[in-house]
Every structure is written in C-alpha cells, then in structure tokens.
Design a protein that fits this description.
The protein is about 70% helix and about 0% strand. It is an all-alpha fold. The longest helix is centred in the N-terminal third of the chain and has 40 residues.
Length: about 900
C-alpha cells in the first residue's frame, strides 16, 4: 500500500513538472514564432542596417529585433553555420546552434535590404577536406576519450598515483573536455567549410568528456568501492540526463550518447536488494527529460530510443514473475503513456499532416506486451492480474483517442486483446511464460477461463465498440485511414471476444443467449456504419470505415445464425440472407453492400463443401426430391438469383456478376445432388458413379448452358456469356472422358437394361446427342463459331455411338462387353450402319448449312471405306463380303452424283 502511494505521488509530481515545462515551451514557441514571422515578412530592418540610422529615423525601439535579425541572418550572408532543424520550435538567436547530426537545414533568413555580393558556392568537399575536417575531428574525439581511460590504466599499472588521485584526474579531464566544448561553442565557433557541419568540435569534446565521466563514476563504485550504490546510481543518472540536456545546443547524437549511458546505468550499478521503485522512478525521470528535449527539437529517433530502453527494462523486470511488483509495472506503464501523450505528442502539433507518429509504435508494442503478460503469464494470471492488464489496454485505447497521432496504440491494444481471447478457446496452443523468457507453444490455455475472464471480455468489447465507432465518426471527414483503423478494430475485437467466449463458456450446439448478443452487435454495427456515413464528406458515400462497420454487422449475423440454429437451417438462412444487403442498395449505394452478399455466397460454399448433405448423412432422409437437399441447395440458388436481379438494377457492378454465377452454380448443384441422392438410394457420399448418373449430370449441364445463354440474351452479362461457354466445355469434356472411355459399356460391361429402346444407351447417348445438337443450333450466331461447331461434333459422335452400341446390343443382348467377340453379320451391320449414318450426316449438313456435319460425314464414310477394305475383306465370307463392297460402291457413287448436282446448281445460281 505504501509503495503504491509513493508511485501515485511520483506520477502526480511528474505530471506537474511536465505541465510547467510544457507551459514554458509553449511561451518560447509563441515568442520565437512571432519573431520568425517578423523576420521573414521583412518587417524587421535588415541586419546590415546600422543602428545609428535606425535611431536617426526615430525607431530605436526596434533595436532588439534588429539584433535578433542579425543573429539569424548573418550565417546566410557570410559564413554558413548549421542551424537547428526548422520545426515548430526555433532556438533563440545566439543560443541554439545546431549540433553536427542535424538532418534538416533551417530555412533561409530574410534577405538584407542592401545588395550584398553572394559568395561563390563551393562544390562538394574533396577527400582532403573530409580527412582534414570531419574524420580528423571524429577520430580525435574518440582518441581523447580512450586516451583518458588509457592514462588511468597506465597509472594503475605503473603505480604512479593512488586510486583516489587517478579517479580525480580522470574526473578533472572529463570536466575539462566538457568545459572546453562549451567554451569553444560560446566563443562563436563556426564551421568555415561547406558540407562539414558534422565535424562539430564542441559536441565531440562534450561527448568525450561525458564518456570519461561515466567511466570514472563506475570505476569509483564498481572497482574501488569509494562510493556506494545509491550515490553512484545518482551520479551516473545525473551525467546521463545532463548529457541529454546538453544536446539542445550540441545535436541529437550527443543526446543519444547520454541516453545510452542513462539506460545502461542500472546494469552497471548492482545492488544486493534491488528496489523496483528506485529503478522505475529513475527511468521515469530519464524518459520525461528525454521527452521534453526531443519534443523541443522534434528528434523522433531519440524519443523512440527512450521508449525502447524503458520498455526493455519493463520486460526484463517482468521476467522475474511472480516476484515482480504489480504497482511498479503499472507505474512505469502509466509514465510511458503519459510521456507519449503529454510530452512527446503534446503542444500544438499538426495532427492532420500525417496519419500517425512512428515513434508511438515503440511504446505501443512494449506497453501492450506488458498488458499481455499480466493476462496470460501463469504466475501473473494466478495472482489475478488480468484485470490490471485489461485496464492498461483500455488506457491505451483512450490515449489513442485523445492523441490521434498515437494511432499505433490502438493497433497494439487490439492485437493484444485478440491474442488473449483467441488463447482461451480450448484447446489453445499459444502461451506466454515470462519466467522462461519467451512466448511459446505448449498446448495450454493462454488465459484462465473463469468468470473474471468473461467480465473482462465484456468490458473490453464495450470499450472497443464505443471508442471504435466514435473514432471512426470523428475522423470520417478529416482522415480516412484513421477512421478506417478505428472502425476495423472497433468491429474485429468485439467479434473475436464474442467468438472466444461462446467457444469457452457457451453451448456450441445451440445457445440463444450468445445468439442474442450477436444479434445486438448486428444492430449496433449497422447503426454505427450509418452514423459514420452521415459524418463523411460528402455524406453517405460509404467509405472504408463504413465498409468495416457493415462487414462487422454481416459477420455478427453469421455468428448469430450458427449460434441459434442447427446445420440445415443455418445453411438455408445464410443463403437467404444475401437478399438483405442486395435490397439495401435500393436506399444506400454503399459499395460494400454487394460484396457482403458475395461474402455470404462464400460462407454457403464453405458450409456445403464441409457437409454436402446439409444436415449430416445420418439425418438425411431417403425420400427422393423432398428432403433437406432441395431447400439446402435450392433456397440459396433462388436467393442468389434474386440478389443478382436486384443488384443489376442498383449497383450493377462485379458483385452482380458473382451473384449470377453463384445462382447458376447452385442451380446445377441442386439438380446434381438430388439426382445422386435418388440414384444411390438416399446416400450421396458413397458408391461409385454409374453411366446413368453421369448421363443425368451431362443433361443437366447442357440444359444449364442453354438456360444461361437464354438469360444472357435478355440481360447481357459477361458472367453469363463466359459461364455458359464454360459449362458447355465442361460438358463436352465429361462426355469424351466418361461417356466414351471411363463408363462406356463396351469397356465396363455394365448392364444396358432389358427394355429394347428406353434403356441405358438411350439415356447416356441418344438424349445427350439430341441435347448437344439442339444447343449447337440454338447458339449459332450467339456464341463463337468454334463453340457451336464443338457441340455439333459431339452431338454427331454421340449419335454415332448410340447407333453403333444399339447394333451391338441387338446382337449381344443386355451386356455388350468387347470380350464377347464379333460375328460376321454384326461386322457387316456396322459397315452398312456407318454408311447410312454418313449419308444422313451429309444430308443434315447440307440442309443446315453446317460444314462441321459435312466434315463429320466425310470422316465417317472414310472410316467405313477403310473398314470394308481392311477388315471386311479378311473377316467376311460369301454373300456378306459381296454385299459389303456393293453397298460401299453404291453409296460412294451416290455421294459423287449428289455433290456433282449440288455444285452444278451452285454454278447456275452464281452465273
């Protein structure tokens, strides 16, 4: 209790100090802004103007401004001096000469009124200049620092002086170097060579002195024991903070050196009884001081480094679980967030210039990781620290909402929350163990599944919903990326929490309580999307933030259906739900509405792929047609078709094309599944496919192709056009592979049935031939020539196969396998039949003006000729051989006379 009180007092004191410092910084910013505006606008007399002339003009009161203008403008007129970066805070003239590592040059000062000869701009410094200026200074500074340490080491080895004298000499050397750097800076040190501002001698000397002082204090404590741990800790911290403060006049690199020294200090000073409050109190001071200085100079890298060092110390301390002090952890997390929100992002920063501030990523990751550790680490979770971790996450969301540039805090908090609640789903596989120093996989639940977890989940869900929708509306007009980010996390986190709680605490078969919560989320997200859309510019445009909100409503509806209904009704209702967003396009033209319907199609496809029986094989009745397959596939098909019709009259974009394709696909699936169910006695997932079943699928596919063509002619659509051709190509491929090869009764010896005409051959060959031929005629002029020619050729081949196999069945009976052999009369019958078919194809080709049929006729007659000369001559005997050749000759002569007459008629018509 006492330690918590100390932490609270320290936080309050730190906030007071920060507030006072911010007030002073704001005052300086305003004064310098006014001075800079006067200088750049020309209202200030030029620097070259003598003071006597100003007095003579009666404007003596402007002398201070003239002096300030002279300090600012003089480097541009004579010798170039590296200025501080041009940020919102300008250093006073003659006081804030930039350090060697300033990345941005200051803007040019006001031009003098009197014309001054501009100095000749020198080129880039050569190797000699670089060696003589920059490199010499850098190496010289390093040499000074090492030289001082080597001198101390020599005196130790030679025994010249005692330890106290040696340490005193080292301290004096360090102070002399720091004083020398300050002396050179104050006496007006300037860099006379362009491009060598990095060789800033005062900063190099100050850095070397600070390095020597760090080593001296550490030796006095760690080697000789002259001073205690408390004094050494204080001195090292003071040196580090002082070095960071000196960076205001020496540059960012010196601040980096001081920050590294300050962060390493706790490692150098060991204690038998470490005090976490001393450590984190010290880190809070360093972080606040670094934040103030980094804020004044807009040094992003320095601020990120300070957050990184503080975060590393926090994580290292938490690895001592369960011995870690919760109050100390909460204290340093609070200080980190306060330094981010009140110091680094405080003041009058332009929050619309960029989406987020990248140094905010570092504290976001570390604070979220500490909150995650409090929630999932076994030692912390057992102690009941999950509530404190949730409080940290809620504060991160609040800070992100308070400071828009701290948007990474929202991402970090959302990701940590998602990880926590995905981890409670049994069986979880992700776990964290800070005592082991890693986030690993051990097959144990990440968080404890108890009533506290449930209550925390509800609270965090409400936090993300409220903050997410509020933030999305707040930035809907000014910053779309921020608005989209808030909407996305405001939807995603509550849905993940709801899913995790349902899996962990609910009834997976049917749970109306969680279904009611999901239904409530549907209404909240839908209303939130409309609320956000009204704040857009222009309003009701339906941007990304609105899309996230409405998509969240759709996902919540998906969860509601799974929670409240069984498998069959879930599939049916989910398919029918595509109508809702399609109908909504009558009142709102949000682009996401059509894609929500597409998402529902994907969900239905996933369900039927997982369970084609809709309700499970054990619950599917054996009644043909009137079973769960009819509504399970038919209702989605009808709903998809209606949604496509509705979207065609409103948005008419790509979602409409997807819905048309989905409607056609599910119509085919409905027929196919009902056929398979009937052909296999109510079982659709076992048993090999038969030729009769395949024939029905083929007829369905050909019919679907015709329906798609007919619909496309009335309502043109690229999906219908290419979909109809795709169905036709698939049908032809199935016919060639299955009808002619895989399931052909010649090869399988499958029973063709006992009925003479209406048998398997009629179903598998003649009916598909008629269907393919009819489709070929129907698509002529409506589809490419190759498509109708392909269908016509397949129709001819099916008719040929039907006639040939029927002759085979006439001689062999029900089973027509090839291994039963061929008789002479059967052999002759094939020749006569093929000639008759060839003549019939020729007649049809001439009548229908189909070149494909005429070519097929020629090919078939050529096959018959080859058969007669090569096969019949050797196999047939007696009158059959003679009749074979006589018939062949008569047919060929007749074909010749037919073509001659045809050509003569054509010549007369053309003549």
């Amino acid at each position: 209790m006492f330690e918590s009180l100390i932490g609270l007092v320290a936080i309050i004191a730190l906030f007071v100090i920060i507030s006072r410092q911010q007030s002073r910084i704001g005052l300086v910013e305003r004064e310098l802004g006014a001075l800079r505006s006067l200088v750049l606008s020309g209202a200030v007399p030029p620097a070259a103007k003598p003071a006597e002339q100003m007095a003579a003009d009666g404007k003596a009161e402007a002398a201070p401004f003239a002096a300030a203008a002279a300090d600012i403008a003089s480097p541009t007129v004579s010798e170039p001096v590296a200025q501080a970066p041009a940020t919102e805070t300008e250093a006073p003239a003659g006081e804030a000469v930039s350090g060697p590592w300033s990345a941005v040059e200051a803007p040019k000062a006001a031009e003098p009124a009197e014309p001054v000869a501009a100095p000749k701009t020198p080129g880039k410094p050569d190797i000699e200049t670089a060696l003589g200026t920059r490199w010499a200074v850098w190496v010289g500074g390093i040499a000074l620092a090492l030289g001082g340490l080597f001198l101390i080491r020599y005196t130790i080895e030679a025994g010249i002086f005692g330890p106290g004298v040696r340490l005193t000499m080292a301290a004096v050397l360090g102070l002399v170097l720091v004083a020398g750097g300050e002396f050179i800076r104050r006496t007006g040190f300037k860099v006379p060579v362009q491009g060598v501002a990095g060789a800033y001698i005062p900063a190099i000397l100050t850095a070397a002195g600070a390095f020597i002082l760090f080593g001296t204090v550490y030796a006095a404590h760690g080697i000789y024991g002259f001073i205690g741990a408390a004094l050494a800790f204080t001195l090292l911290g003071a040196i580090g903070v002082a070095t960071i403060a000196a960076a205001l006049v020496h540059g960012q690199a010196l601040a980096g050196i001081g920050l590294v020294g300050a962060m390493v200090t706790p490692v150098l000073i060991a204690s038998q009884a470490p005090n976490p409050w001393a450590l984190f109190g010290y880190l809070a001071i360093v972080l606040a001081a670094t934040g103030v200085i980094a804020r004044m100079r807009d040094w992003k890298a320095l601020m990120a480094a300070a957050f990184f060092g503080t975060g590393i110390w926090t994580i290292l301390y938490m690895s001592d679980a369960p011995g870690a002090n919760l109050s100390a952890i909460l204290f340093i997390d609070a200080v980190t967030l306060a330094a981010l929100a009140l110091v680094w992002l405080g003041g009058h920063r332009d929050e619309t210039a960029r989406v987020f501030d990248w140094p905010s990523i570092v504290p976001g990751l570390f604070v979220a990781f500490s909150a995650l550790g409090l929630s999932v680490d076994p030692a912390f979770a057992t102690a009941g620290y999950a509530l404190h971790g949730a409080a940290i996450l809620a504060v991160m969301v609040a800070v992100a909402l308070y400071r828009p540039l701290a948007l990474p805090l929202l991402y970090a908090a959302g990701l940590a929350t998602v990880m926590i609640y995905l981890g409670i789903i049994p069986p979880a596989s992700i776990a964290s163990d800070f005592s082991a120093g890693a986030l690993g996989v051990d097959g144990l639940p990440v968080a404890t599944s108890n009533a506290l977890t449930l209550r925390i989940g509800i609270a965090l869900g409400l936090v993300f919903i409220g903050a997410g929708l509020w933030g999305a509306r707040k930035f809907a007009a000014s910053s779309r990326p921020r608005s989209a980010s808030w909407a996305a996390w405001g939807v995603a986190v509550p849905l993940v929490i709801l899913l995790a709680l349902w899996f962990t605490f609910g009834n997976l078969d049917r749970d109306f309580v969680y279904a009611a919560v999901a239904a409530l989320l549907v209404m909240v997200f839908a209303a939130g999307g409309e609320w956000i859309a009204r704040a857009e510019e222009p309003p009701l445009k339906g941007g990304v933030a609105v899309s996230f909100a409405l998509s969240g409503a759709a996902l919540a509806g998906l969860l509601m259906l799974h929670m409240a209904f069984n498998s069959g009704w879930t599939t049916i209702l989910l398919g029918a739900a595509v109508i809702v967003p399609a109908l909504a396009t009558r009142w709102r033209s949000y682009p996401v509405l059509g894609w929500i319907s597409v998402g529902a199609v994907i969900a239905v496809l996933g369900r039927v792929a997982f369970d084609p029986t809709i309700v499970g094989a054990e619950f599917l009745s054996t009644t043909p047609l009137f079973n769960w397959l009819l509504p399970g596939y038919g209702v989605p098909a009808l709903a998809f078709g209606f949604a496509a019709w509705q979207l065609a009259r409103t948005t008419n974009g790509r979602p409409r094309l997807v819905m048309e394709a989905a409607a056609a696909l599910f119509a085919l699936l409905t027929l196919a599944m009902l056929v398979r169910h009937a052909m296999h006695g109510g079982v659709i997932d076992t048993g090999p496919m038969t030729l009769a079943e395949q024939a029905i699928y083929t007829l369905i596919a050909i019919g679907a192709g015709a329906i798609l063509v007919a619909i496309d002619m009335r309502s043109p659509s690229s999906v219908l056009r290419y979909g109809s051709m795709a169905v036709g190509v698939v049908s032809v491929a199935l016919i060639v592979i299955r009808h002619f090869v895989v399931l052909n009764p010649l090869f399988t010896d499958e029973s063709t049935g006992r009925i003479p005409v209406f048998n398997l051959l009629f179903l598998a060959y003649l009916l598909p031939a008629i269907a393919a031929g009819g489709l070929a005629l129907y698509v002529r002029g409506k589809r490419p020539k190759w498509y109708s020619a392909m269908l016509a050729l397949v129709a001819a081949l099916l008719a040929f196969a039907y006639a040939t196999l029927s002759v085979r069945r006439l001689f062999k009976g029900e089973f027509i396998g090839l291994w039963s052999g061929l008789g002479q009369l059967e052999t002759y019958s094939y020749s006569a039949l093929w000639l008759v078919i060839g003549v019939a194809l020729l007649t049809a080709g001439v009548w229908l003006k189909s070149q494909v049929l005429r070519i097929a006729s020629a090919a078939l007659i050529a096959i018959a000729v080859l058969k007669v000369f090569l096969f019949d001559m050797s196999e047939l005997e007696g009158v059959l051989r003679a009749l074979s050749f006589i018939g062949l000759g008569a047919v060929l002569i007749g074909i010749g006379l037919f073509y001659q007459r045809l050509l003569t008629r054509a010549a007369r018509e053309n003549g």
